[in-house]
Amino acid sequence: MSDFTKIALQMREDWNRRISHDYRFWMSESHVSDEEMWRSGERDLQILLDGISEAGKKTFLELGCGVGRLLKPALKYFGGVIGIDVSEKAVETARHLLGSAPNLELHAGDGYTLAPVQNESVDVAISFAAITSMPTDVAANYLLELHRVLKRGGILRMQLYLGEEQLVCRNDTLHLRCYKKEALLESVAAAGFELEWLRELVLPFQVSFKEIGIEAVIVSLRKSEAAPESAAVVSRLLLPQGEADGAENTSGADIECWMSVNYAKELAERGETERARQAVEYALSFQKSASIDVRDVIDRILNRIEESEQPAPTRQVSQSGVFEANMAVLTELFPKAAEQVRTRSSSEVQVEVKETPDGPVLYQQGICLDHPGKPKSAAASWAKRLVEDERYLKAAAIIVYGFGSGYHLEQLSRCAGGKQIVVEPCTDTFAQALKIRDLRAVLRELKGLHVGIAEAWDFLEPESELVVRPQTQALFGEHCSQLKAAFHGKRGFASLHPAIAVVGPMQGGTLPMTGYTLRGLMGLGQRTRAVDFSSFASGFHALEGFVFDKARQAHLQGHYIEMMSQVVLESINEKPVDIVICMAQAPLTGRALTELRKKGVITALWFVEDYLRFTYWREMAQYYDFVFTIQKGQCLDAIKAAGAANVSYLPVACDPDIHRPVSMSEEERKRWGSPISFVGAGYHNRQQLFAALCELPFKIWGTEWPGCKPFDRLVQEQGRRISPDEYVKIFNASDININLHSSSEKDGVDPTGDFVNPRTIELAAAGAFQLVDERSHLAELLTPGEEVATFNSAADLKEKIEYYLAHPDERKRIAEKGRCRVLREHTYQHRLKAMLSEIFSVKYEQLKLRQDRSPWQKMLKRSEPYPELLSRCKAAYQRGEEPNLDGLIADVVQGQGKLTETEQKLLFLYHVRKQIIRAVAEEGKQG
Amino acid sequence: MKKRYPDKTNVLLVNITRLGDMLQATPTIAGMKQENPDCKVTVLVEKQFTEVCHNIPNIDEVVSLDLGMTCRSLAREQDGIIDAFEYVTEAVDDLRSRKFDYCLNMSSSAYTALLLRLVGISRNGGWTSDDEGYRVIESEWAKLFASSVFHLNRQYNSLNLVDVFRCSADVEKHPKQLLIKVTEKAREYVNGLISSHGFTNKGPLIAVQAGASQAKRQWNPQKFTRLINILLDQLNARVILTGSKKELSIIEPISAACGSKNVMVAAGRTDIPQLSAMLEACDILITGDTGPMHISVAVGTPVVAMFLASAFGFETGPYSEGNIVLQPIIGCGPCNPNKACTRPDCHDLIEPELIAELTKLRLQSDFNHLPEGIADSNKVTVYRSSFDEFGFCDLKALNPRRGDQMERFRSAYRKLWLSDLGGFEISPPGKSAPSLRQLDGAIEGMQEVVTCAQEGRRLIGKLLNLIRDESSSPRMLGQLNQELTENDRKIEQLGFHFPQLGPLTRMFIFAKENISGTEAFDLASQMGGIYDDLDRRGRKLAAYIE
Fold first, then answer.
1. Closest chain B residue to A925 measured between Cα atoms?
2. How many structural domains compose chain B?
3. Which CATH number, 3.40.630.30, 1.10.3720.10, 3.40.50.2000, 3.20.20.70, labels domain A496-649?
4. What is the ipTM of this complex?
5. Which of B209, B330, B464, B545 is deepest in the core (most CB within 10 A)?
6. pTM of whole model > 0.90?
7. pLDDT digits (tens, 9 = 90+) for B515-530
């Protein structure tokens, strides 16, 4: 019998026994009823699935599904649901409890593989409180199996415990295994996964035991392209010393016995005498194998069972006058929230009130918003645990998501003082809380209170910490995700300092946007680095002069792009970055992007193209963590479906330092100016429409225009390419700038045109007047008729040209308003702030982890005693330098003023190193 | 002798990395002590030389810098840089706390210059740096040092760097030799080594140093073998091959090729004190321009020294009376020390027979004349080391060449610097001016330099007037500045066009680079002084050329 088979048999036997005893107790903390168990399952599944969308199309698998606590809610969301468990008893119970569902598959597994499940057939796999009890070798093997069954880019989310490794017997199937964070990260990487994020798991009851160094976490992994190592390697990385068979370690029987005793005690306290007696029996069955003596405790429980048979008195829930008193304080302190309660609360949301010995608690959709039995003491221990983490003590504010009945806030203000800002998404729940408890003291301790579904997150402070009540998260998942995204986005700007590379294309209209993007990032104080390929364009085109066969030419150009990709990789190897932003047509291959992602670099594409005309996103989207588009609707769906992890709309923008009003001499005005102008390439629809304007005083600038009439007269300066500086002059010197979005298929104005071209925003920023064709996305950027003038056909254009040429004041007014709007909302800084907020909100943990591990952090910490050195380190870090001497003195220039003492010392070190290196080199040369 | 800072009480001598440099500083240290008996001398050296410094007389304290560790810290990057930063902070604080009143740094390295700026010693004789991090040379002698070691100028220098170093520190009195302590313990060790070797010959004990710091300065091992065989045969000599462990790869084949019991390999078996004792025990040392050459001179053992490739006898030759120096005559020598050479033809200009003959003669007695025909003056010049009337080391050719132009300029420059920088009275020769043709037009060039210097002085006069006049237009100042720049460029070019004028113009360039301050009038006045110096020196040099 193989080692794995032996362990699997043990696991099966143990879990069959536990399920037979009381599956609710051994499967969840909510053992009062199946309903409660399902609710807790829903809550936990919501936590696990945070950020996973479009579940309906996806296949879900749970390893260690037990009796289906999480499968039941999963059935609602996922197209296909697979549950697998080593215990036949558990699978049998699950079948009974879940019934037959067309999208459900249940398997009693062999205990170390996912054998019935096909390769690459699963989109999302989870394991909640299951892998934690498995022997490490088994867990390692399952990691490889999960890698096997997941589709490319598939997600694995596991609930685990981090901390010092515990001494657990190899055949122990109950004790929670703890792994060191570094070991876990190395082992999952070896198993072929890349880390998405790692978060602490917070539940309404204690799951982390930080006082003894144990933290419950959820880890989100993505299947990477890397081939996994063997199970032995993964296991060794996870637990280098391995697990012992010997009895010197803690025994599984002990804990099973002890848990049963505690369960019996709890049941007795709750008055469930019959189940309590069963639990006592179960505990006593371990008397022989367990090394602990529980007889005294069991005696006391049995006494308690007898006492409990007396019925407990019930308490009156309602308290007259409480609501009015609460409202008075609320109105005084948080008038907006009071107004919300007065005007928005209704009885639509079913909020139940139940009594506990500590006081009343609220239930919403069957979920208890506080601890169902001991809300006060549970809240006290929750608050105590929270402030043990010094982040919360140091934070300027603690944002608490979920008001509940306020027990936790009461306790938190005792531990952390009055710095809580509470967000309660449900007005009815909040109103109900005001009715059942005197919350005046709680309200007085709050720093802020936001009731209802907030859309603006202005109150989020970067120096604050966020605490999410899982019950509220379970009820308002989407809203909670928005809050978290906004919070992490905001905090990202305050605490993350990633090095960002911007990779531009070799040529074309996006090339200048690369520069604007860089400047925008720099304006936001980001650490940026340009990867400029413009000088490679001539080489790329030179190939056309050597090989004339188009197919071979394309083949060679493919090699050329491959080489440029390699250049990016080498450059980033030498000088690492955390985020790569690729502009459209950046010459990066899928292989290069995969390499970057393997190194933990976040990849983003700003796809500033018409997705219907340029379709390379179909192949490339899967290689990007983020794709930003200038179109909405179907574009976002299509790119998501092509495999991009996150797709968002991010329209084009202007660079106010480039696109600005300019003063010109009379001569310049004569050269660049005209009553009517157009700058751009000669696309089909433009040729078609502009031919009709040939009688007007009209100048056309740009390339690809035909040499025939009337363009031979309209097109300026031999149809050469116009630089940004030049076209800004044209914008400024023209009375009317026509801006017609290009189309190769449509004549004139494209009636279905959606996205807005850069020219629209750039013209507005230059303070120039433009007539732009109507676009469906335009109105949200510039208000037509007020901030921009539009046309919808050739006839309309002609009419408006005539009108606006005759109304210079109106032109001026519209142009001024347009300029104000774009400067206020549509600069590259605005766009890049939005882009980074999105990246920070999704990848905060990954970037934070990377930053904390970055060598700069150590260097910054060490330089703290030397203020001048510290500021020099910070400046070098900000410039995106490497943490070495050269990086530190890159801006120390001799002869540019007096050197400070720190600069002199660093230069001294620089010259020492140079001299010694030279001496060694000379020695080598001579010898 | 002209002195800037004759009085010194607490001196820091920076001599970071070389044993030879340390030894060459010994006359300066001894002289300092002689002239300022209460003066405390501290030397700053690289950690590995700390021990060696204990064998140098007159040093009161040794402070070391661990540059190797610093580099290793820097190589670790990240917090290694902070380690290195902390180390330099501690070192600077330590040096500051010692409150030196004078510093002599003759290492031209950028890092020692920066270090001294950080330590902030007010009076300096050598290199330091200014507020902006530029290196500055404090004394005229140190500027001469920098000009003389500038590759193209080296051959026009006849002042031993020991003397230039000494004068940079304003030291006049000195022991006219290098100094090193030899301990009884080392002597005992060496005697044991020699007596246990089992020499069968009874002749002179001759040390041979075959290794050198650079491959191109290392004479062919086969020639050493031939030389040793001659010495064994003709002098019944006992030969000791000295050197370091690293040099065994050169030395062992020589020993093996000789195949004689009378050749002992001491290389790798002695530390510095033991090597000193070993050389003291020997009758003579045959060597290149090496550290052991300086040690031998310091322990009073004469040397026969070959100055091959980049080595130049006048510059770093043996600093005591009565040593023999051989300098090959070759167009490319002395070559650039920073360039490797794959065809060292200069080695072939010296034959083992000549070295054997010179060794034999020197063993007999010190001599001032060579027997006829012993050394071809077209291939090699044989010199004897001695001291002139002002106490400066010199080399006198024992087989002089006729009409040696280079020698004429060397001699003229020697007089110029001794007179102009040292303040020694040296009269110009009589009226026998050289023919212009003979000197490749250098005299004309010199006249041009003088003219440029005077033009510079005139322009500075105008500039000072403009600076004084508050109504001066920036355009006029700019124009004048342009004229000055053009004039200076011409001076620099003359130095390149007439290599003989290189030392003169290089001194001008260094002086210009060392102007300090920010106030325009002051800067212009300093510049005026520099033109005056050039004018005076140009005229003097012309006068000294015999």
1. B340
2. 3
3. 3.40.50.2000
4. 0.90
5. B209
6. no
7. 888 888 999 999 999 9
